[in-house]
Design brief:
single chain, about 100 residues, alpha+beta, Alpha-Beta Plaits, four-stranded antiparallel β-sheet, two-stranded antiparallel sheet, 3 helices, 6 strands
Length: about 100
């Protein structure tokens, strides 16, 4: 599994409620996306940066999303280019499903 942290600076600080409205407008596009296990949207406490933390089945799955078109969408939606950090994710503890998931 691969975790990708996507982060971008906002042109001006936004509130948590405003961020939630924006995030809810894009969330449906990620439902049922091949290889995407989970996505967490985030906003820094000062409202100046936002992004997503994605858990993917593989790096190939992740790379299928992070295209130039996707980066242009982020740029147009949020006003800045995203930075991407890739992390190997060998184990996940899921307390909702009461599972421990490991790479096979």
């Amino acid at each position: 599994m691969i975790t990708v942290i996507v982060e971008f600076k906002l042109p001006q600080p936004i509130s948590n409620n405003h961020a939630q409205d924006i995030f809810l407008s894009t969330a449906p596009k990620y439902q049922g996306m091949p290889g995407l296990i989970r996505k967490y949207y985030f906003l820094t406490p000062d409202g100046t940066k936002a992004g997503g933390i994605y858990l993917w089945q593989s790096r190939e799955d992740a790379n299928s999303l992070y295209t130039e078109e996707w980066k242009a969408f982020v740029r147009s939606k949020y006003g800045s280019d995203p930075t991407l950090t890739y992390l190997e994710t060998p184990v996940v503890v899921d307390n909702v499903l009461n599972e421990i998931i490991a790479n096979e």
